[in-house]
């Protein structure tokens, strides 16, 4: 079957600019130092995305491949680390790592982890480290593959970047190939977006019209749609939709 054409690109904005996020998290660090209850912005909080995603994951947890006691999580573009802390509170006790290309984000998330009792040194510790998913090669990171890789708004931000790769493509076109090596075969990639519909996310991550059939940067691997996170739906002009898409892909090879 011939894959569909990739979705049209989004117009670049400041939300795709690393400087914007460095400044945002630096400001949050300053506020948190004087007011520890200030943890910065939580993406999609108005849609209750984190709680709904946790609910979806818990619905899968009877499966041996998603055992709360040992399932490992990688959070891409972790921001303030909020979602990993919620997973801990939701009963997931496996290893957790949050990565972000902003050093201020990593510092903020690590600080909040300590305030919540989840510092990396503790038994329930959550690790954070600086990592640029676009420029970095996961094989050189010293990290392993994870059972579940999370993306809550990071692909959105990458899609809003005007940056191009060595082939002159917008960097979002290479995102899937960067994510695949991070996910174990049989593992899951769960992406939350307010810029792309479910069908468009399938085109970006399942079909791989841009990179040879869904293969990762090592030339291997493929994602398949597994399920969706259910959000409130609305009707406008006779068309039904939702403002946020949450899609779960399974790495099948």
Topology:
Blueprint: H1 18-34, H2 49-60, E1 73-76, H3 82-89, E2 96-100, H4 103-116, E3 127-130, E4 146-152, H5 154-159, H6 175-179, E5 183-193, H7 198-207, E6 223-229, E7 234-236, E8 239-241, E9 245-251
Parallel strand pairs: 1-2, 1-4, 2-3, 4-5
Antiparallel strand pairs: 5-9, 6-9, 7-8
Helix pairs in contact: 1-4
Structure, explained:
Helix 1 runs parallel beside helix 4. The protein has about 250 residues and is of the alpha/beta class. The chain contains 7 helices and 9 strands. Strand 1 (about 75), helix 3 and strand 2 (about 95-100) form a beta-alpha-beta unit. It is about 30% helix and about 20% strand. The model is unreliable at about 210-215 (pLDDT under 50). The strands form 2 sheets. The chain has a 7-stranded mixed sheet, with helices on both faces. Strands 7-8 form a two-stranded antiparallel sheet. The chain is globular, with a radius of gyration of 18 Å. It has helices spanning about 20-35, 50-60, 80-90, 105-115, 155-160, 175-180, 200-205; strands at about 75, 95-100, 125-130, 145-150, 185-195, 225-230, 235, 240, 245-250.
